[in-house]
Design goal:
The complex is a heterodimer of chains A (216) and B (488). Chain A has 216 residues and is an alpha/beta fold. Chain A has one domain: NagB/RpiA/CoA transferase-like (Rossmann fold, 3-Layer(aba) Sandwich). Chain A is 31% helix and 21% strand. Chain A has 7 helices and 11 strands. In chain A, the strands form 3 sheets. Chain A has a 6-stranded parallel sheet, with helices on both faces. Chain A has a 3-stranded antiparallel sheet with strand order 5-6-8. In chain A, strands 9-10 form a two-stranded antiparallel ribbon. In chain A, a hairpin with a 7-residue loop joins strand 9 and strand 10. The longest helix of chain A has 16 residues. Chain A is globular, with a radius of gyration of 21 Å. The termini of chain A are far apart. Chain B folds into 2 domains: 304 residues, Rossmann fold, CATH 3.40.50.10420; 59 residues, no CATH class. Chain B has 23 helices and 13 strands. In chain B, a hairpin with a 4-residue loop joins strand 5 and strand 6. Chain B starts with a helix and ends with a helix. Classes of the chains: A alpha/beta (216), B alpha/beta (488). Strand 8 of chain A pairs antiparallel with strand 9 of chain B.
C-alpha cells in the first residue's frame, strides 16, 4: 500500500506541475546575506541584554567566581538534585564535585526519565549563541543528552565567548549535519490563558547563562 | 454546544459549511477576547518588525523560496524522503486523511501504544487523528496548554496560534476543577502550574509522541518544530516512538532558505524574534544515552494539496507557513472568531484553504467571508495573494471552471447572465428602464419594496429594496449639459 500511495502522491504532484520524474530544478533564487557581527564585547553585551529581556538570567563570570555562583544558585532555587552534561569544559570547572560538596545529589545523565524529571537543576554547555535573539544552540550526543536542558525546573548553560555566532546562517552551516539541534531563547513560556505571560509551563521555569570571561 | 463548534472538533465534516449561519450565533465573549488577543499580537509584531533592517526584502525572499519549492515540489519531496531514510527514519505517504490516520494507527498497533502525547499540529487536526486514535482505544493528550484546555472542553481551536484565546480564566478554572476534582483557582499562573503537573505525568508515561512540522528540510531530512512551552521537545524526546504528520507543502529546500523562513514565522505570528524553542530533528537518536526516540516516522500528507497545486489561480495558497497574522489583522475574523469558518483552519487563510481542500460545493460561503479589504495580503510574511485567490474562488463558486462545477443554481446564473445582457445592450437597458417602474407597482410601499416573490424574497426577507427609479440616463444627460454649459 505504501509504494502505491507514494507513487500516487508523487504522480499527482508531477501531473499538477507538468513535470516528469527526474526533471531538474527551475533556477534557484539568491538567499539573503547574514547579519554582521560587532566586536566580541558588544556581541556579549547584546546576548546578555536579550536573554534578560526574555526573563532569563545571563552574566559574565570568571572561573574563580564559579564556586560562589553555584552555591548561590543552589541556595536560591533550593536545589536538592541535579544532572549535568559530561563535557570537558564542565569537568574542568569541577561542577559535579562542587555540587556534591554543596549537599546536592548528582544523578547520572542516563538515569531514567522519571528521575531526571525530579531534578531541580540541569547543567549544559552551549555550542552556539546568537546575540540578536538571546538564543543558545545545543547539539546532542551520548555525553550531551537532550533531556538535561528540558526536564529540570532550572537550566544552567555555560558557554565560552567562542560559541558566539553572528546569525542563524553560521549556526546552520555547522549544525546541519548533526542529528539534533535545539535553539533555546529564554525560559519556557505561554500566553494561552487570557494572553497572560506565564513562565515555566513545560520546560524550565528559569534559565541561567554563564559566559566565561576567559576561554579556558 | 453549537453545531459549528462541534464540527470543528476534529471529526471529518460532511455537512456544508454555513459561514453565515454559524457567525450569527457567536457568543459575545469571542469577539472581545479575539480583538484583545489579535491586537496584542499585531502590536508585538509591529515592534519586532521595526527592529529588522529590511522586512520587505525578507518577505520577498520568503515568498520566492516558497514558490520555488512548490514549483519543484516533486524534486524536493524525493530528496526529503531519501534523506530521512538515510538518517534512519521512515517515510510514509498518505493520499488522503483516511490513509494518514491508518498509517498512524498501524504504527500504534505495531508498538502496542496505549498513551500518545501530541504537539499542536494543524495537519493532525485536518485528518481528525485524535478521533481515529481514541476510537481505537488509545489515549491522546494534547500538550500545548491552549490545545489541552480545548481538548478538555471538547471543542476545536479558535485561533491558529492561540487556540483557547476565546476562553475566560474562570471557564478554564471550572474545566480544571471538574477534570482534577479540585477547587482550581482563577489565576492564570496557578492554572498553568496545575496543567504543568498533570501533563508532565502524561509526557513521562506516553509511548508515542505525535507532532506536525513547521518545516521539513529536504537537504538533510530534518524536521523543524517551533514552540514556546517546551511541549514540542517533550513529545519528540520522551516517548520511544515519534511520528510526525506533515502536509507535502511543508518542505523547504535547504538550511539557507530555512533561516529566512524562521525569521519570518515567529515575528509575523506573535511578534517574537524567535520562539523559545526551535527543534531540529534528523532521524531517530543515534545513541541510546543521547535521549530521544528510537524510531522516527514521517507521514507525508497530500489530502488535496496536489489538486491545489494544479490550479495556477490557487497554487500560492500552499506558500502559507501558518503564522496566523492574516487572522490577527482580519476585521471579519476578529468579529466572528475561528468557529464560524467551520473547520480546523480559520480566518482569511481558512477561507481560501478550506474550499480548495473540501471543494467549493461544501464550502461555497467561505470565499465570500471577506470584505476584500486586502489587509491580509499586506501582513502575509510570504505574500500569499489572499484576496486574489478569494476572487478566483468566488468565480469558481458562481461560474464553475475547469476544476470544479459551479455551486450557484442554474436559474440564478441564468438571471445573472440576463442581467449582464440587459445592462450591456443599450436598447434593452432603455426598455428595462421604462418598464421596471411600472412592473414594481404591485409591491411598492412608500418608496420601498419590502416583500418580493421568490426567489427575490431572499433579499427582502432581510432588508427592503429601494424602489427602482431609472433616473441615471436623465441625470447623465443633464450633467453633460451643465458641464458643457460651464465651459467658457
Amino acid at each position: 500500500m505504501s509504494e502505491k500511495s507514494r507513487s500516487a502522491v508523487l504522480d499527482a504532484v508531477r501531473g499538477a506541475l507538468q513535470r516528469q520524474p527526474g526533471d531538474s530544478l527551475a533556477e534557484r533564487l539568491p538567499v539573503l546575506s547574514s547579519r554582521q557581527a560587532a566586536s566580541q564585547a558588544q556581541e556579549l553585551q547584546l546576548l546578555i541584554d536579550e536573554i534578560q529581556k526574555l526573563s532569563g538570567h545571563a552574566q559574565m563570570i570568571s572561573s574563580s567566581q564559579v564556586a560562589a555562583a553555584l552555591a548561590g544558585l543552589v541556595r536560591t532555587y533550593q536545589v536538592k538534585q541535579a544532572v549535568l552534561w559530561d563535557t570537558p569544559l564542565l569537568q574542568q570547572l569541577g561542577l559535579a564535585a562542587r555540587l556534591t560538596d554543596l549537599g546536592v545529589r548528582v544523578v547520572p545523565a542516563h538515569s531514567d526519565k522519571q528521575m531526571l524529571s525530579e531534578c531541580d537543576l540541569g547543567i549544559t554547555e552551549a555550542d552556539f549563541a546568537l546575540p540578536e535573539t538571546g538564543t543558545l544552540g545545543l547539539l546532542s550526543n551520548a555525553e550531551r543528552p537532550r533531556l538535561v536542558s528540558l526536564l529540570p525546573r532550572l537550566h544552567l548553560a555555560i558557554m565560552r565567548p567562542a560559541a558566539l555566532r553572528a546569525d542563524l546562517h553560521q549556526v546552520f552551516a555547522e549544525a546541519r549535519t548533526h542529528a539534533y539541534l535545539i535553539l533555546i531563547s529564554g525560559p519556557s513560556r505561554t500566553s494561552d490563558i487570557e494572553m497572560t505571560p506565564t513562565l515555566g509551563v513545560h520546560g524550565p521555569r528559569d534559565v541561567h547563562v554563564w559566559v566565561l570571561e576567559t576561554d579556558l | 454546544m453549537q453545531k459549528s463548534q462541534l464540527q470543528s472538533s476534529q471529526k471529518k465534516i460532511s455537512q456544508p459549511i454555513e459561514f453565515g449561519a454559524y457567525s450569527e450565533h457567536v457568543p459575545g465573549q469571542i469577539p472581545s477576547a479575539l480583538k484583545y488577543a489579535t491586537g496584542r499580537f499585531m502590536e508585538q509584531r509591529a515592534a519586532s518588525l521595526d527592529e529588522l533592517p529590511d522586512w520587505e526584502a525578507l518577505r520577498q525572499a520568503g515568498s520566492a523560496i516558497r514558490l520555488h519549492t512548490l514549483e519543484n515540489l516533486d524534486f524536493y519531496l524525493e530528496k526529503l524522503e531519501q534523506q530521512v531514510i538515510a538518517a534512519g527514519g521512515q517515510v510514509h505517504w498518505a493520499k488522503d486523511a483516511a490513509d494518514a490516520c491508518e498509517i498512524v494507527l498501524e504504527l500504534a498497533r505495531q508498538h502496542a501504544v496505549k498513551r500518545a502525547v501530541k504537539v499542536k499540529s494543524m495537519a493532525t487536526e485536518e485528518i481528525g487523528l485524535n478521533h481515529a486514535l481514541q476510537e481505537a482505544g488509545i489515549e491522546v493528550v494534547e500538550t500545548d496548554l491552549g490545545e489541552y484546555i480545548i481538548q478538555l472542553m471538547g471543542t476545536g481551536p479558535s485561533h491558529i496560534v492561540a487556540p483557547a484565546v476565546h476562553l475566560k480564566k474562570e471557564q478554564i478554572a471550572e474545566v480544571f476543577s471538574q477534570e482534577f476534582g479540585i477547587e482550581a483557582p482563577t489565576d492564570p499562573v496557578q492554572l498553568t502550574a496545575i496543567a504543568r503537573q498533570a501533563l508532565r505525568e502524561k509526557f513521562l508515561a506516553a509511548d508515542l509522541g505525535i507532532s506536525g512540522a513547521n518545516f521539513l528540510v529536504a537537504e538533510t531530512g530534518t524536521l523543524v518544530i517551533v514552540t514556546n512551552e517546551g511541549n514540542g521537545r517533550m513529545c519528540t524526546t520522551l516517548p520511544d516512538v515519534h511520528v510526525a504528520v506533515a502536509g507535502i507543502d511543508k518542505v523547504v529546500p535547504d538550511w539557507e532558505s530555512l533561516s529566512v523562513l524562521l525569521k519570518l514565522l515567529p515575528r509575523s505570528g506573535a511578534g517574537q524574534k524567535i520562539t523559545v524553542y526551535t527543534s531540529f530533528i534528523t532521524g531517530p537518536r543515534r545513541a541510546k544515552d543521547e535521549h530521544g526516540p528510537s524510531e522516527f516516522h514521517l507521514v507525508l500528507l497530500d489530502n488535496g494539496r496536489s489538486r491545489i497545486l494544479q490550479d495556477p489561480g490557487g497554487r500560492e495558497t500552499l506558500k502559507c507557513i501558518r503564522c496566523g497574522s492574516c487572522l490577527n489583522i482580519c476585521p471579519v475574523y476578529r468579529n466572528v472568531g475561528g468557529y464560524a469558518y467551520g473547520w480546523f483552519i480559520s480566518g482569511p487563510i481558512g477561507a481560501i484553504f478550506t474550499p480548495q481542500i473540501l471543494g467549493v460545493q461544501q464550502a461555497s460561503e467561505l470565499p465570500f467571508a471577506s470584505s476584500l479589504c486586502g489587509a491580509c495580503d499586506e501582513v502575509c510574511p510570504v505574500k500569499v495573494p489572499i484576496t486574489k485567490i478569494l476572487l478566483h474562488l468566488r468565480r469558481r463558486v458562481v461560474e464553475g471552471d475547469g476544476y470544479e462545477l459551479a455551486v450557484v443554481a442554474p436559474p440564478l446564473r441564468a438571471a445573472a447572465a440576463l442581467g449582464r445582457q440587459a445592462l450591456g445592450t443599450a436598447w434593452l437597458y432603455r426598455l428595462g428602464g421604462r418598464l421596471l417602474p411600472w412592473l414594481q407597482i404591485p409591491w411598492l410601499r412608500a418608496g420601498w419594496l419590502s416583500k418580493l416573490p421568490p426567489p427575490l424574497n431572499r433579499w427582502t426577507k432581510v432588508r427592503p429594496l429601494p424602489a427602482f427609479q431609472a433616473r441615471f440616463r436623465k441625470w447623465w444627460k443633464r450633467r453633460q449639459q451643465v458641464s458643457t454649459g460651464d465651459q467658457p
